[in-house]
Amino acid sequence: MSSHREAPEIAKDPVADSSDLYAFVSPDRPDSVTLIANYVPLQLPSGGPNFFEFGDDVRYEIHIDNDGDGKPDVTYRFEFTTEITNPNSFLYNTGPIESLDSKNWNRKQFYSLTRIADGREHRLANKLACPPCNVGPLSTPNYAALARQATFSLSTGEKVFAGQRADGFFVDLGAIFDLGTLRPFQQLHVAGKKLFKAEGEPVNATDRMNVHTLAVQVPLSRVRRRANRYGTHDRASVIGVWTSASRQQARILGNGSAKDTATGPFVQVSRLGNPLFNEVIVPMSKKDEWNTLPPTEDKRFAKFVEQPELAALLPVLYPGVFPKLDALNKTKKPRADLLAILLTGIPAGLIQGFSNNTGDVQADMLRLNTAIRPSAKPDRFGVLGGDLAGFPNGRRVADDVVSIALRAIAGVTVPLVDKGFTPDAAAGAVTPGLSAADVTAPFLRNFPFLGTPYDGFNNPPASS
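Above: the chain sequence. Below: its structure as tokens.
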């Protein structure tokens, strides 16, 4: 749901589909920021013999804006190539894969990493190896070791990884897209009243699924613009982050012996900043268009942030539960709180000790105040839970972004801009009912933070 199959056309092109984006000051290296972009969502771990991989014909990029104009000042570009060891075998591997150069591994993938800044491209690395997919205990007997081998520290200060990881996003897709059902409140749903007598147990629909991850850990000096100081209220401390995928404009299909070829300039087909923006805010008719545009064009979508459809639906779906939100909706006042959270950042003075405002340009970016250090005791509700190091100040892997977003839309954040508004009691409790504890693969304490991918042999677990 964060951005899994969020638009009609990109749902047909999962290799280029960005599913989640994370940006946070690194707890294992506080002088750096960790940027994680996931692609190829909803991977069934047992999906062989053609296991999942990045696209050789896709240009993947993570962008950083450090001056608030919604344009990239620093970009990290990943480009992939695939090599087949044995062209006469249909198998992904013919024996255990115990190292990245194993002769048993038949389909290896490599990538180059380029940094683009100040109008110049600098190739940081060539032919870095991805790990294989996690096939099973016979094929990939020590997957954690393979992932460590595929984690590279570069001479320019970056640490980088590209490969399969466990999907860390937790969401009850089956319930939410069944007419907006929230299982902890299902007995209050306008239609659920006839079916349910009590609250239900949530289901993490993305659990035991994998993704393909681009992760780069970058020294703060390499992402922030030059300034005399970087305090918590200094604009220079704040960066905006988004990810994109692009394909060449034309593709010519080969016939028989001729290979497919791509030509022309690269055209953006996918992007992601804040979780759930295109998924929940942008209407169906405009989702594909949004994926092709840069953040500087997001003023076109501001009206959908000012009056989000979900805010109007909640009082209808849950009669009597959100009367104050219903009254607010009927005033037709623009939701200035959501405009700040999603499109400009939160200005100083609204939350004590916090700001991640980037200026007047309306752009969907994950905004991160890099002067706020990692929390010793992270709260999964981020800024709403009093933890200023969490979403919507960037996004950490365990942040409960679905609950945070639902609560904001339900009115919890309105008092930031309207002291006279009192949210409904339910607004501060609304949730799909999931947390990081509902992710089977534990998150890592260190880079690249997302857990070891699920293997096909043990997924689903064999019954005893």
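The mean pLDDT is 96.
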